[in-house]
Batch of 2 targets.
Target 1
Amino acid sequence: MAKIDDVDRIDLNGPGLDKALARTRDYADLMSVNADQLLANYSIQATDSNKLLMCKAAAATIVTVPAGLNDFTTGAAVCIGRYGNATVTITPGAGVTFELPQGVAQPLTINSRYGVVRMTKLAPDRWLLRDALTAGG
């Protein structure tokens, strides 16, 4: 899986992001955090704690949650958003468990442009995912 080294910053007050985030009070804690724009497949890193990762690739993007993200404290979150039109799939690495809303199964995709999924760490290698999820890749 490719790793992003060159990350652009997005203005959180720009069109689209402003509307998507303003509708949901749960993301208020992210308003002061720079959003990272992902242009290719990506693996979540320890430095992504409490960030908003916006996927804006022209082609389908896979975001992987690897095992061993020990620098994320229990209760820490990362949000993944779909900024472009391409499909964004969220997948667990080996040994990682996703706790999902009833009726949602893997593979997981973000259900629409400007949709945002919040992932909260519950325990080592165990994550609660909620919001803009759809089953199927």
Note: The domain at 8-135 is CATH 2.60.120 (Jelly Rolls).
Target 2
Amino acid sequence: MRFPPLLTAALVLAIALSFAGGLIGVIGSIFSASLLMAYGVLGFAVLHSITQGMTSRPFLLAGTYLVVLMIGWLVSALCLLGMLDTMIDVRARVCASADRLRLHESHTVTNQPGSDRGVTTMEVILLGAYRKLGQMGDVVRVKDGFCP
């Protein structure tokens, strides 16, 4: 789910109109409340997206839902997260930084003849060309703790 950047401008306009008196103020309040709820839902979607792959994800999400249910106005933080995602694409930035650290498989132990028995190794996907290791996109086996 993505919102167009102009929707943020519409929200600012609706909030400004909500301070006007009479029917214009009521209409501005209705539109601003509706758009804020939509941004809150977008904030939850961003939170779900950026916590993928975390071991603490269930606790983080459950805690967020409980806090928002118990203290309703804290949904404004999720609205801000949704607006921030609309403006600077938080999900893509988090995914890009996670891709740099992406592992193909988690740790495995090698017990093959000729190798150091019990040495922990891992398979990584190379995100660049490395001399003596491989080209970008290659899956290679390296010792645990390898840092190019």
Note: Residues 127 and 136 are 5 Å apart (CA to CA).
